[in-house]
Amino acid sequence: MAFFAKGKERDSQTIETEEVVTPKQTSTPEPSGTTISKNIKFEGNISGTDAIHIEGILLGDITVNTVVIGKNGTVTGSITAQKVIISGQVNGAVTCNDLNIMQTGYVTHTVHANTVILSGEIMGNILAENSINITHTGKIKTNSLHSKRITVNGKIEGKVTASELLEVGSNGFVNGEISVKNIKTDEGGRVIGSMAMYSEPQTQKPNNHKKEPKVIDTVIA
Fold it and tell me: Distance between CA atoms of 87 and 105, rounded to whole angstroms?
């Protein structure tokens, strides 16, 4: 702050001033979400619109926006979210838009997602609405895998349905009952089992003709 002599002009000498610092406007930080650390075991359901990061053990269902399960994380229960990243273990159904199962990730029960990237393992039925990409470390054992586009560089055992394209890379292996519209196999890729052409399921038209009740003649004694 500058000082001036009363009634006089400013002294020609240099006057030291204190710098006035105006605090910068900062945006409100994004919520960090909830973290269950490595040595924590939590029992109960979790719901909200934020994110959750699990490195410990959770016994219960999760309904949030984003779920991240670390290598040490275990969930026993269902997961419903927009985005799910799994490096640990899930013993329950997963329903989301985008699912990424890392190399150490493991999922049992059903999976229903729009897009799936699998580098880990799934044991259960899978419905990937748009696509599923199985990398060279990915493994699937299933009674039903259904998607528009299936790309295999890993291993699938079970019933596989690709309504648009099944693409088997040079490291890919598919063994089971296969239904495809189109198939592409790179040199080195293997496909074993029965194969049929995929056809769109026919919807049954409603029957507007009501059956008239039958009249049965009876004699009541």
Answer: 4
- Identity of residue 3: F
Q: Which residues pair with 151 in a beta bridge?
A: 133, 167
Domain boundaries, the chain: 34-195
User: Which tokens is 92 given?
Assistant: 């329950």
- Contact by Cβ (8 Å): 143, 126: no
Residue position matching structure tokens 């699938």: 156
Instruction: Give the number of other CB atoms < 10 A from CB of residue 214.
Output: 5
Closest residue by Cα to residue 109 from 94, 128, 127, 130: 94
What are φ and ψ of residue 102, in 5° steps?
A: -75, 175
Alpha-carbon separation of residue 216 from 182, 210, 212 (angstroms):
55, 18, 12
Task: For residue 204, count other CB atoms closer than 10 A to its CB.
Answer: 6
For 186, phi then psi, to 5°, come to -80, 160
* pLDDT tens for each residue of 24-71: 443 333 335 789 999 999 999 999 999 999 999 999 999 999 999 999
d(CA 20, CA 22): 6
